[in-house]
Write a structure and sequence with these properties.
six-stranded mixed sheet; 22% strand; 40% helix; single chain; two-stranded antiparallel ribbon
Length: 211
Amino acid sequence: MNELIAKDLLSINAVFLRPEEPFTWASGIKSPIYCDNRLTLTAPKVRNDVENALADVVRTHYPECEVLMGTSTAGIAHAAITATILDLPMGYVRSGAKDHGRGNQIEGKLEAGQKVVVIEDLISTGKSVIEVVNALRDAGAEVIGIASIFTYGMQKGIDCLEAAGVKNVSLTNLDEVAEVAANQGYIQPEDKEKLIKFRDNPSDESWIGAK
Protein backbone atom coordinates (compact mmCIF):
# COMPACT_ATOMS: atom_id res chain seq x y z
CA MET A 1 0.00 0.00 0.00
CA ASN A 2 2.75 2.48 0.95
CA GLU A 3 4.52 2.05 -2.38
CA LEU A 4 1.34 2.14 -4.48
CA ILE A 5 0.08 5.36 -2.91
CA ALA A 6 3.57 6.92 -3.12
CA LYS A 7 3.66 6.15 -6.85
CA ASP A 8 0.14 7.54 -7.27
CA LEU A 9 0.89 10.81 -5.48
CA LEU A 10 4.11 11.34 -7.43
CA SER A 11 2.41 10.56 -10.75
CA ILE A 12 -0.03 13.49 -10.39
CA ASN A 13 2.36 15.84 -8.55
CA ALA A 14 0.24 15.69 -5.42
CA VAL A 15 3.65 15.21 -3.82
CA PHE A 16 6.11 17.47 -5.59
CA LEU A 17 9.83 17.19 -4.90
CA ARG A 18 12.16 20.12 -5.51
CA PRO A 19 15.31 19.73 -3.39
CA GLU A 20 17.28 22.04 -5.71
CA GLU A 21 14.75 24.87 -5.28
CA PRO A 22 13.06 24.51 -1.87
CA PHE A 23 9.51 25.55 -1.12
CA THR A 24 8.84 27.95 1.77
CA TRP A 25 6.15 26.90 4.23
CA ALA A 26 3.92 29.43 6.01
CA SER A 27 6.12 28.92 9.08
CA GLY A 28 9.16 30.08 7.09
CA ILE A 29 10.71 26.61 6.99
CA LYS A 30 12.44 25.69 3.73
CA SER A 31 11.21 22.35 2.42
CA PRO A 32 12.30 20.08 -0.45
CA ILE A 33 8.78 18.64 -0.64
CA TYR A 34 5.31 20.03 -1.17
CA CYS A 35 2.17 17.97 -0.69
CA ASP A 36 -1.28 18.81 -2.08
CA ASN A 37 -3.54 15.79 -1.72
CA ARG A 38 -6.52 17.76 -3.02
CA LEU A 39 -5.20 16.84 -6.46
CA THR A 40 -6.14 13.21 -5.80
CA LEU A 41 -9.80 14.19 -6.11
CA THR A 42 -9.33 15.22 -9.75
CA ALA A 43 -7.47 12.04 -10.76
CA PRO A 44 -10.04 9.20 -10.82
CA LYS A 45 -7.61 6.25 -10.68
CA VAL A 46 -5.54 7.76 -7.88
CA ARG A 47 -8.69 8.81 -6.06
CA ASN A 48 -9.99 5.26 -6.27
CA ASP A 49 -6.72 3.87 -4.90
CA VAL A 50 -6.65 6.38 -2.05
CA GLU A 51 -10.25 5.93 -0.94
CA ASN A 52 -10.11 2.14 -1.09
CA ALA A 53 -6.86 2.19 0.85
CA LEU A 54 -8.41 4.45 3.51
CA ALA A 55 -11.35 2.06 3.73
CA ASP A 56 -8.94 -0.86 4.18
CA VAL A 57 -7.14 1.02 6.96
CA VAL A 58 -10.42 1.54 8.81
CA ARG A 59 -11.46 -2.10 8.33
CA THR A 60 -8.08 -3.44 9.44
CA HIS A 61 -6.99 -1.08 12.20
CA TYR A 62 -10.29 0.36 13.45
CA PRO A 63 -12.94 -2.36 12.89
CA GLU A 64 -15.07 -0.99 15.74
CA CYS A 65 -15.44 2.41 14.00
CA GLU A 66 -18.97 3.82 13.99
CA VAL A 67 -18.47 7.27 12.42
CA LEU A 68 -15.90 8.92 10.14
CA MET A 69 -15.07 12.58 10.72
CA GLY A 70 -13.12 14.56 8.13
CA THR A 71 -10.84 17.45 8.90
CA SER A 72 -11.87 20.77 7.40
CA THR A 73 -11.45 21.25 4.57
CA ALA A 74 -9.07 18.78 2.96
CA GLY A 75 -10.34 15.68 4.75
CA ILE A 76 -14.04 16.21 4.07
CA ALA A 77 -14.27 14.70 0.58
CA HIS A 78 -12.05 11.76 1.54
CA ALA A 79 -14.18 11.06 4.60
CA ALA A 80 -17.36 11.20 2.51
CA ILE A 81 -16.10 8.81 -0.18
CA THR A 82 -14.57 6.41 2.34
CA ALA A 83 -17.77 6.44 4.40
CA THR A 84 -19.72 5.53 1.27
CA ILE A 85 -17.43 2.55 0.65
CA LEU A 86 -17.81 1.40 4.26
CA ASP A 87 -21.50 2.32 4.57
CA LEU A 88 -20.77 4.45 7.62
CA PRO A 89 -22.10 7.84 8.71
CA MET A 90 -19.73 10.79 8.38
CA GLY A 91 -19.34 14.39 9.30
CA TYR A 92 -16.57 16.92 9.59
CA VAL A 93 -14.94 19.22 12.09
CA ARG A 94 -14.40 22.91 11.44
CA SER A 95 -11.22 24.69 12.54
CA GLY A 96 -13.43 26.69 14.88
CA ALA A 97 -17.09 27.09 15.83
CA LYS A 98 -19.30 29.07 13.44
CA ASP A 99 -20.15 32.60 14.55
CA HIS A 100 -23.72 32.27 13.28
CA GLY A 101 -26.63 29.83 13.25
CA ARG A 102 -26.17 27.07 15.83
CA GLY A 103 -22.48 27.85 16.23
CA ASN A 104 -21.44 24.33 15.30
CA GLN A 105 -17.85 23.22 15.10
CA ILE A 106 -18.79 19.61 14.40
CA GLU A 107 -21.06 19.13 11.40
CA GLY A 108 -23.12 15.96 11.13
CA LYS A 109 -24.82 13.85 13.78
CA LEU A 110 -22.52 12.69 16.55
CA GLU A 111 -23.67 10.99 19.72
CA ALA A 112 -21.70 10.79 22.95
CA GLY A 113 -19.72 7.58 23.20
CA GLN A 114 -19.61 6.88 19.47
CA LYS A 115 -16.33 5.46 18.19
CA VAL A 116 -14.84 7.85 15.65
CA VAL A 117 -12.00 7.68 13.13
CA VAL A 118 -10.65 11.01 11.88
CA ILE A 119 -9.82 11.21 8.16
CA GLU A 120 -6.92 13.59 7.43
CA ASP A 121 -5.09 14.33 4.20
CA LEU A 122 -1.61 14.93 5.60
CA ILE A 123 0.20 15.21 8.91
CA SER A 124 3.29 17.31 9.57
CA THR A 125 3.51 18.61 13.15
CA GLY A 126 0.19 16.97 14.07
CA LYS A 127 -1.13 20.15 15.67
CA SER A 128 -4.18 20.68 13.44
CA VAL A 129 -5.40 17.08 13.54
CA ILE A 130 -5.07 16.99 17.34
CA GLU A 131 -7.28 20.08 17.54
CA VAL A 132 -9.91 18.04 15.67
CA VAL A 133 -9.40 15.06 17.97
CA ASN A 134 -9.82 17.29 21.03
CA ALA A 135 -12.99 18.89 19.65
CA LEU A 136 -14.50 15.44 19.12
CA ARG A 137 -13.47 14.30 22.58
CA ASP A 138 -14.97 17.43 24.11
CA ALA A 139 -18.22 16.51 22.36
CA GLY A 140 -18.16 13.09 24.04
CA ALA A 141 -16.88 10.99 21.15
CA GLU A 142 -14.37 8.19 21.59
CA VAL A 143 -11.67 8.89 19.00
CA ILE A 144 -10.13 5.51 18.27
CA GLY A 145 -7.65 6.76 15.70
CA ILE A 146 -6.69 8.70 12.60
CA ALA A 147 -6.41 7.50 9.01
CA SER A 148 -4.31 9.86 6.88
CA ILE A 149 -3.10 9.83 3.30
CA PHE A 150 0.44 11.10 3.90
CA THR A 151 2.69 11.85 6.86
CA TYR A 152 6.05 13.56 6.89
CA GLY A 153 7.13 11.37 9.80
CA MET A 154 8.62 14.32 11.68
CA GLN A 155 9.50 13.63 15.29
CA LYS A 156 7.46 16.64 16.39
CA GLY A 157 4.38 15.13 14.78
CA ILE A 158 5.05 11.69 16.28
CA ASP A 159 5.46 13.25 19.73
CA CYS A 160 2.27 15.31 19.32
CA LEU A 161 0.16 12.26 18.49
CA GLU A 162 1.72 10.25 21.30
CA ALA A 163 1.06 13.01 23.83
CA ALA A 164 -2.58 13.11 22.74
CA GLY A 165 -2.84 9.33 23.05
CA VAL A 166 -4.11 8.79 19.54
CA LYS A 167 -2.99 6.33 16.86
CA ASN A 168 -2.41 7.33 13.24
CA VAL A 169 -2.15 5.04 10.23
CA SER A 170 -0.97 6.72 7.02
CA LEU A 171 -1.25 5.33 3.50
CA THR A 172 2.28 6.47 2.74
CA ASN A 173 5.07 8.67 4.12
CA LEU A 174 8.06 10.78 3.22
CA ASP A 175 10.51 7.88 3.45
CA GLU A 176 8.50 5.77 0.99
CA VAL A 177 8.01 8.70 -1.38
CA ALA A 178 11.75 9.45 -1.32
CA GLU A 179 12.58 5.81 -2.10
CA VAL A 180 10.10 5.57 -4.98
CA ALA A 181 11.09 8.98 -6.35
CA ALA A 182 14.78 8.03 -6.44
CA ASN A 183 14.05 4.65 -8.03
CA GLN A 184 11.80 6.12 -10.72
CA GLY A 185 13.96 9.12 -11.60
CA TYR A 186 11.85 11.91 -10.12
CA ILE A 187 14.94 12.94 -8.14
CA GLN A 188 18.61 12.02 -8.15
CA PRO A 189 19.58 9.17 -5.80
CA GLU A 190 21.65 11.56 -3.67
CA ASP A 191 18.61 13.81 -3.18
CA LYS A 192 16.95 11.10 -1.11
CA GLU A 193 19.39 11.89 1.71
CA LYS A 194 18.34 15.55 1.61
CA LEU A 195 14.69 14.59 2.06
CA ILE A 196 15.47 12.35 5.01
CA LYS A 197 17.68 15.04 6.59
CA PHE A 198 14.82 17.52 6.25
CA ARG A 199 12.43 15.05 7.87
CA ASP A 200 14.81 14.46 10.77
CA ASN A 201 15.15 18.18 11.53
CA PRO A 202 13.12 20.67 9.44
CA SER A 203 14.85 23.61 11.14
CA ASP A 204 18.27 22.47 9.93
CA GLU A 205 18.77 23.85 6.42
CA SER A 206 22.23 22.42 5.88
CA TRP A 207 20.83 20.04 3.24
CA ILE A 208 20.15 23.02 0.93
CA GLY A 209 22.85 23.16 -1.72
CA ALA A 210 24.58 20.08 -0.34
CA LYS A 211 26.23 17.82 -2.93
